[in-house]
From TrEMBL:
The chain crosses the membrane at residues 599-628. GO terms for cellular component: adherens junction; catenin complex. This is Cadherin-7. Residues 1-27 form the signal peptide. Cadherins are calcium-dependent cell adhesion proteins. InterPro entries: Cadherin, Cadherin-like_dom, Cadherin-like_sf, Cadherin_CS, Cadherin_Y-type_LIR, Catenin-bd_sf.
């Protein structure tokens, strides 16, 4: 008959209880005193504790307290005079004692995995006096283990890897299960391992838990992952034992056991001849079932007629072979190329050489397609030179370009004006001859970099570019001059032969052998008695004094003309004036004051006089400010009394009459005078003749007719006016009607009036009134003289 887990546990408990009751595990603990104990004239002999050995089964499931053992003292005569007490771990809460008999019971279910033993203390007391009759004794209650814990994989689930194609017995990983039961008691904690899932590929050692491969030549490319289920069972795997399981994921890692292979034996690609250098022509890839480093490969061109024209490299990410151009393609020179390309693994495993070879070959044919190419110059850069003295139209050089296509279309040339903004150069559209278009100046621009465009006559969109560097050759066209503006001073106490200035010169020209300047005084300054010039022969000159005793009050500034000649061919010269100021110097010869007025002023005025003048000026300024302030206060308006009505200050004036709309106050007919003066428009390029214009008189007619006549006259004048614009324009006039009956009162019309006023007396008033006499005099010789 097979026992279940619970029945088996109860069976073990019954056997343990039987052993305890039969006295097989009975032990005696003796506690002795060093001296005999005397009481009431009698000698007390040594006493000792006596009890059964205490073992308790864990996981007791009964309803009554579990008997543990019995305490007994030899002093106890069985008359009830002795009582037993218990203290220590679990006393009263887990373990109780019968104070009369000394029997110990466990009141709770015990678990050895929580606590394996309990340490307690027992004591026998006299019931009447409550005094100990025996010394306190310590004892241990041990919990006996039963198989109540299954094995557990604390580190599961597991993951592991093993190389593919590994031999049988290759270790993969070790699994470990732990059992909380007592390993020193029975087989409750003795575990054995078995594999529930994963055969026939893997196996596990029963005692160690090491998982190993069970089949040879497992191929990752066929299946790369396996899931195993491992069981651990206690009681040495016997029936009734408890078990636990875990999963183990085993991944086959890659090895280089697959050589690369091209999917095709040949490839063909078409590329235009205009494809730039370094452009990608094609991508090819050899298939390799391996991954990672085992799939890394290299490509190389081993044969063919495009070895120098193309190259192949590998893309590290995709392991593709990238074919690129190394040289420019030319359809007219070669129309196709053939390449033999090899792909090989970089990391070959010697164990699998028998599966090789680990390389493969393919053929790549590249067809070059013809495209309409722009003209090509015979040189990428043309270098030309021209003198800056060259006249306009001088030939500098020639560029040449041709159409590389089979059609060989004619080429026309032009200059990219973005590179020649000032238009210094021209180019012949047919011949490519470059000439000067303006005068050149090397000092402004020594080198001109221009771009020449070559266009196909049949297809102007095809434009080639050539680059021309034109160097301007120097000529001696700039005279030398002072290197800087010199501030030269001479001390009043200077001695003859004293150096007061060292000068140098510059020249914008750039002679091939460098500059050489010659310095001298001009002819009119050569015999002056104040200064002389010494040429140092190193493109510098020294100015020296000829006398002493310079005085600012006599002459504060001297002007010394210096003649400078360069060494060009032909040589150029210039006269530069050196300004020398006479200064008052200290003992070290350092100029202090160079102003002549500063020298004269202290001789006439003392410090006290200057202070007095300043005080007077300040006093006058204060007075002026006071006067201005007082005047501003007088001009301030009076403040009106708040109680007064401001309307009392309004000044009323009489009405002088109605306006233009007031027809009752005035007779409008009396204001109409149609006599107006019209100036005839004359041409500005013809001198007008002097003539008197009479006033045409209009009859008194209605207003609308007046305005119509006025507009008609202005229209005719505008038609014959030579200064009028040659298009329709808006003519604006301010005409309000005819003039007054009294005509004009202005003196400007007096010259043409019939007034009897005589202005001849103006001639007698002197030259100041001569102009008026000429304007208003009656003599014909005085008119517009």
């Amino acid at each position: 008959m097979k026992l279940g887990k619970v029945e088996f546990c109860h069976f073990l408990q019954i056997i343990a209880l039987f052993l305890c009751l039969s006295g097989m595990n009975q032990a005696e603990l003796s506690k002795s005193r060093s001296k005999p104990y005397f009481q009431s004239g009698r000698t007390r002999t040594k006493r000792s504790w006596v009890w059964n050995q205490f073992f308790v089964l864990e996981e007791y499931m009964g309803t009554d307290p579990l008997y543990v053992g019995k305490l007994h003292s030899d002093v106890d005569k069985g008359d009830g005079s002795i009582k037993y007490i218990l203290s220590g771990e679990g006393a009263s809460s887990i373990f109780i004692i019968d104070e009369n008999t000394g029997d110990i019971h466990a009141t709770k279910r015990l678990d050895r995995e929580e606590q394996a033993y309990y340490t307690l203390r027992a004591q026998a007391l006299d019931r009447l006096t409550n005094k100990p009759v025996e010394p306190e004794s310590e004892f241990v209650i041990k919990i006996q283990d039963i198989n109540d814990n299954e094995p557990k994989f604390l580190d599961g689930p597991y993951t592991a890897g093993v190389p593919e194609m590994s031999p049988v017995g290759t270790s993969v990983v070790q699994v470990t299960a732990t059992d909380a039961d007592d390993p020193t008691y029975g087989n409750s904690a003795r575990v054995v391992y078995s594999i529930l899932q994963g055969q026939p590929y893997f196996s596990v050692e029963p005692k160690t838990g090491i998982i190993k491969t069970a089949l040879p030549n497992m191929d990752r490319e066929a299946k790369d992952q396996y899931l195993l289920v491992i069981q651990a069972k206690d009681m040495v795997g016997q029936n009734g034992g408890l078990s636990g399981t875990t999963s183990v994921t085993v991944t086959l890692t890659d090895v280089n056991d697959n050589p690369p292979r091209f999917p095709r034996r040949s490839y063909q690609y078409n590329v235009p001849e205009s494809l730039p250098v370094a452009s990608v022509v094609a991508r090819i890839k050899a298939a390799d079932a391996d991954v990672g480093p085992n799939a890394e490969m290299e490509y190389k061109i081993v044969d063919g007629d495009g070895l120098g024209v193309f190259k192949i490299s590998v893309d590290k990410d995709t392991q593709e072979g990238i074919i690129t151009i190394q040289k420019e393609l030319d359809f007219e020179a070669k129309t196709s190329y053939t390449l033999r390309i090899e792909a090989a693994n970089m990391h070959v495993d010697p164990r699998f050489l028998s599966l090789g070879p680990f390389s493969d070959m393919t053929t790549v044919k590249i067809i070059v397609e013809d495209v309409d190419e722009p003209p090509v110059f015979t040189s990428r850069l043309y270098s030309m030179v021209v003198s800056e003295a060259a006249k306009v139209g001088t030939i500098i050089g020639t560029v040449a370009a041709h159409d590389p296509d089979a059609s060989n279309s004619p080429v026309r040339y032009s200059i990219d004006r973005n590179t020649d903004l000032e238009r210094y150069f021209n180019i012949d559209a047919n011949s490519g001859v470059i000439t000067t278009a303006k005068s050149l100046d090397r000092e402004t621009n020594a080198v001109h970099n221009i771009t020449v465009l070559a266009m196909e006559s049949q297809n102007p969109a095809q434009i080639g570019r050539g680059y021309v560097a034109i160097t301007i050759l120097d000529i001696n066209d700039n005279a030398p001059e002072f290197a800087t503006e010199y501030e030269t001073t001479v001390c009043e106490n200077a001695q003859p032969g004293q150096v007061i200035q060292k000068i140098s010169a510059i020249d914008k020209d750039d002679p091939p052998n460098g500059h050489q300047f010659y310095f001298s005084l001009t002819a009119e300054a050569a015999n002056n008695h104040n200064f002389t010039l010494q040429d140092n022969k190193d493109n510098t000159a020294t100015v020296l004094t000829r006398r002493n005793g310079f005085r600012r009050q006599e002459q504060s500034v001297f002007y010394l003309p210096i003649f400078i000649v360069d060494s060009g061919s032909p040589s150029l010269s210039s006269t530069n004036t050196l300004t020398i100021r006479v200064c008052d110097c200290d003992a070290d010869g350092i100029a202090q004051t160079c102003n002549a007025e500063a020298y004269i002023l202290p001789a006439g005025l003392s410090t006290g006089a200057l202070i007095a003048i300043l005080a007077c000026v300040l006093t006058l300024l204060v007075l002026v400010l006071l006067i201005v302030t007082m005047r501003r206060r007088k001009k301030e308006p009076l403040i009106f009394d708040e109680e007064r009505d401001i309307r009392e200050n309004i000044v009323r004036y009489d009405d002088e009459g109605g306006g233009e709309e007031d027809t009752e106050a005035f007779d409008m007919a009396a204001l109409r005078n149609l006599n107006i003066i019209r100036d005839t428009k004359t041409r500005r390029d013809v001198t007008p003749e002097i003539q008197f214009l009479s006033r045409p008189t209009f009859k008194s007619i209605p207003d609308n007719v007046i305005f119509r006549e006025f507009i008609w006259e202005r229209l005719k004048e505008a038609d014959v006016d030579p200064c009028a614009p040659p298009y329709d324009s808006l003519q604006t006039y301010a005409f309000e009607g005819n003039g007054s009956v009294a005509e004009s009162l202005s003196s400007l019309d007096s010259i043409s009036s019939n007034s009897d006023q005589n202005y001849d007396y103006l001639s007698d008033w002197g030259p100041r009134f001569k102009r008026l006499a000429d304007m208003y005099g009656t003599g014909p010789d005085c008119l517009y003289s």
